[in-house]
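Tokens for chain A. Residues wanted.
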């Protein structure tokens, strides 16, 4: 099992919650369902799980609930395992399919008979509505692909290494050569494999890139289908167009997204909703330009100038010719591969809770 930092946050919720359900969000295929199941196995006697995409009959039943008592009855009927107060975790996956349920769950959570975990793919506006209603009854945790530290753990690096690195950074002392070489090797591999769990597992199983790329293509195909399903109908083609343009835009010298590449688009305001949809879905990461590196940065932000990255650096690398991976492995990328390195930085910062912005000035650089 891949060691994930989010597990500690799940445990903290379990130990410190009062009357809150747990809502786990994030893009598809980042490992939400797997980690929730592992958490349930560790902390509960049993789990009652419902996937509202895979079980349309259960989805229809939950949608028909008239109140909290009615929903609880329907949950007990649909459950494949007996519900035991205080011991069974009720897990509703793909909650964006039935956002009405959350309103009733707040009353069930208030009773304290069962713990509830909800999960969704953050694709579309449904999940945003869930997060704002009901206030105070949800602890929200957003999951991302494995960050570099988690990737290193998966590849056998001891968990004590990173505290050692942080200490070296703070004290401005050198890292031992053997450790530096090991970390650089893992870093170059991470640029190709990324942090999507299926891709990481494929690499760990055979150490080859072909199976990794098959997993990555499957994830990209998932995103395509989700855009077709969840995005507003009148915006789907533009959203797909923007998504497809990301790899080519990141090979330009500035890496800045050029609106002119989109047919009949001249201003950001024409497609701001489409970009917003992709970023709220965690399918893409937007990095906005600031006019001056002065706090508060938000005041100096210019949304007409920005870069758009993939949510995972491995997904980005997989869309370039496979031979380009050789230069990444050797740490000698071509002149147009800088976008991959920038994607890594954006992804890492986002996973650690930072807003993404950049400043560029000719005399100083970026």
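Reply:
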């Amino acid at each position: 099992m891949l060691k994930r930092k989010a597990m500690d946050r799940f445990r903290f919720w379990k130990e410190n919650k009062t009357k809150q359900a747990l809502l786990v969000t994030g893009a598809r295929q980042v490992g939400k369902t797997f980690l929730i199941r592992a958490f349930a196995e560790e902390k509960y006697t049993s789990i009652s799980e419902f996937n509202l995409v895979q079980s349309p009959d259960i989805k229809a039943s939950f949608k028909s609930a008239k109140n909290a008592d009615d929903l609880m009855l329907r949950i007990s009927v649909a459950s494949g395992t007996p519900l035991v107060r205080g011991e069974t975790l009720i897990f509703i996956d793909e909650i964006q399919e039935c956002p009405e349920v959350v309103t009733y769950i707040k009353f069930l959570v208030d009773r304290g008979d069962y713990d509830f975990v909800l999960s969704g793919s953050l694709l579309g506006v449904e999940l945003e509505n869930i997060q704002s209603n009901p206030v105070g009854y949800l602890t929200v945790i957003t999951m991302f692909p494995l960050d570099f530290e988690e990737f290193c753990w998966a590849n056998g690096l001891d968990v004590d290494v990173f505290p050692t690195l942080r200490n070296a950074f703070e004290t401005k002392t050198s890292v031992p050569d053997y450790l530096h070489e090991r970390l650089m090797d893992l870093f170059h591999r991470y640029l190709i494999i990324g942090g999507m769990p299926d891709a990481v597992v494929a690499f760990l199983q055979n150490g080859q890139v072909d199976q990794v790329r098959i997993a990555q293509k499957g994830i990209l195909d998932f995103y395509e289908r989700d855009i077709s399903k969840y995005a507003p109908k009148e915006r789907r083609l533009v959203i797909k167009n923007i998504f497809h343009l990301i790899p080519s835009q990141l090979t330009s010298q500035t890496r800045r997204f050029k609106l002119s590449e989109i047919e009949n688009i001249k201003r950001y305001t024409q497609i701001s909703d489409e970009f917003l949809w992709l970023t709220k879905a965690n399918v893409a990461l937007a990095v906005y330009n600031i006019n001056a590196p002065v706090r508060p940065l938000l005041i100096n932000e210019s949304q007409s100038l920005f870069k758009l990255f993939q949510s995972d650096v491995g997904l980005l690398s997989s869309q370039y010719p496979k031979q380009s991976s050789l230069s990444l492995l050797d740490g000698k990328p071509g002149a147009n591969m800088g976008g991959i390195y920038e994607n890594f930085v954006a992804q890492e910062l986002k996973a650690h809770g930072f807003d993404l912005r950049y400043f560029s000035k000719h005399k100083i650089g970026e």
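The chain has a mean pLDDT of 90. The two ends are 39 Å apart (CA to CA).
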